[in-house]
């Protein structure tokens, strides 16, 4: 499927985003047929999504530096939590891309309305911030991957040889 021993594969979050885009576009179109506009994307939401991507990247840098040998030590629990955070960020980013893209697609037939154009700019910002979160999550997940055989060599460097 989308999650195996190599971690979360790109096809799962992208497929999830595409599925949600279609569903939300249909629901938005139906919502608008009743004479209502979809809600606007709050600027604070866009900013927080972008900041969350930066936080995930920052945590991922610690794991990356450790695996490259430029950081002295790293708690295995912190590394595991960083991996989980990265995968959650990728899936959350995919869900938000689907939400905002679906609302934008549902709104496109009314592009000529000034209110729709304002909403579409907000959706574009939401899509950009959410794509940032998705991509950062996938990249950081890759940084958390321990190369095959490297785990044993790293352990032997960290643990002293037993005295005979």
| Total beta strand runs | 2
Total of DSSP H or I helical runs spanning 4+ residues? 5
Overall outline: elongated
Q: Distance between the terminal alpha carbons, to the nearest Å?
A: 48 Å
What is the typical, i.e. mean, pLDDT? 87
Estimated helix fraction: over 70%
For the largest beta-sheet, the strand count, sense and barrel status come to: 2 strands, antiparallel
What are the low-pLDDT stretches, counting only 5+ consecutive residues below 50? none
Summing up helix and strand content along with how strands pair, one would put the structural category as mainly alpha
- Whole-number count of domains: 1
The H-and-E topology, N to C, reads as EEHHHHH
Tell me what portion of residues adopts beta-strand conformation. under 5%
Rounded radius of gyration (Å): 21 Å
What spatial order of strands do you see in the largest sheet? 1-2
Explain this structure.
The protein is mainly alpha-helical and 164 residues long. It has one domain (9-146). The chain is built from 5 helices and 2 strands. The chain has helices at residues 11-33, 43-68, 76-107, 114-143, 150-158, and strands at residues 3-4, 7-8. A two-stranded antiparallel sheet has the order 1-2. A hairpin with a 2-residue loop joins strand 1 (3-4) and strand 2 (7-8). It is elongated. The protein starts with a strand and ends in a 6-residue tail after the last helix. The model has no long low-confidence stretch (mean pLDDT 87). Pfam families: DUF3180. Keywords: Membrane, Transmembrane, Transmembrane helix. The chain crosses the membrane at residues 12-31, 37-59, 80-101, 121-144. It comes from Nostocoides jenkinsii Ben 74. This is Integral membrane protein.
């Amino acid at each position: 499927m989308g999650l195996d021993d190599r971690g979360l594969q790109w096809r799962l979050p992208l497929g999830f985003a595409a599925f949600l885009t279609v569903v939300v576009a249909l629901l938005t179109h139906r919502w608008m047929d009743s004479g209502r506009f979809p809600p606007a994307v709050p600027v604070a939401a866009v900013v927080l999504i972008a900041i969350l991507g930066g936080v995930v990247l920052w945590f991922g840098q610690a794991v990356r530096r450790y695996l490259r040998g430029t950081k002295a030590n790293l708690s295995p629990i912190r590394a595991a939590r960083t991996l989980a955070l990265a995968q959650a960020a990728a899936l959350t980013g995919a869900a938000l891309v689907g939400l905002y893209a679906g609302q934008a697609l549902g709104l496109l037939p009314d592009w000529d309305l000034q209110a729709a154009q304002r909403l579409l700019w907000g959706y574009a910002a939401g899509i950009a911030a959410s794509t940032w979160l998705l991509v950062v999550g996938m990249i950081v997940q890759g940084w958390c991957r321990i190369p095959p055989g490297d785990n044993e060599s790293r352990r032997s460097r960290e643990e002293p040889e037993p005295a005979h």
